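tokens incoming
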């Protein structure tokens, strides 16, 4: 009768236990979850973008920082300024500035927030608000209906909520006017007496 040595039996049992534990699924590495990055794909400092129409400069965009996203949208977290030029490509007609800006490519829409200022240079009229929109397709500037606005012209200050205007701010309509203040000219000095 053949008797197997004790160390061979224990060795066989140990090898079987190791083999069984090596195939255990708990020892497999857990799969790494994919991270969906939604931040900017590109950042550009000291941006100057020129838009022309019929070979004439029409719009100039300047911003300290532009962040471009995969969707084609852009953000201007440090502010943005749009300058609209006359047909000669040099004379400034209107400007829009804000402390924050966003451009939505699929809507061709700029959103400006934080001390937004619109200024028609030739007519010397300006609008101040906290949020405004510029629609490139409709060539219009507008605010939400409840947004407080103030328009200043050479002769009066108008306040209200909500505004619609054309791109160069030569025409505008306040949706809910709340006040009109007439600006008086500074008193003129009396003419100096003449000696005859």
């Amino acid at each position: 009768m053949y008797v197997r040595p004790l160390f061979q039996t224990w060795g066989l049992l140990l090898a079987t236990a190791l083999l069984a534990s090596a195939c255990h699924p708990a020892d497999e590495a857990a799969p790494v979850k994919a991270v969906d990055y939604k931040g900017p794909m590109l950042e550009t400092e000291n941006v100057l973008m020129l838009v022309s129409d019929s070979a004439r400069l029409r719009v100039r965009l300047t911003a300290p920082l532009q962040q471009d996203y995969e969707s084609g949208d852009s953000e201007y977290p440090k502010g943005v300024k749009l300058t609209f030029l006359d047909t000669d490509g040099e004379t400034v007609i209107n400007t829009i500035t804000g402390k924050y800006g966003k451009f939505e490519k699929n809507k061709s829409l700029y959103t400006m927030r934080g001390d937004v200022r619109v200024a028609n240079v030739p007519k010397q009229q300006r609008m101040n608000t906290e949020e405004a929109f510029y629609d490139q397709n409709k060539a219009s500037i507008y605010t939400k209906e409840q947004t407080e606005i103030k328009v200043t012209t050479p002769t009066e200050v108008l306040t209200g909520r909500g505004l619609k205007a054309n791109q160069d701010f030569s025409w505008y309509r306040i949706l809910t006017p709340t006040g009109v203040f007439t600006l008086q000219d500074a008193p003129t000095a009396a003419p100096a007496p003449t000696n005859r």
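note: Helices lie at 6-22.
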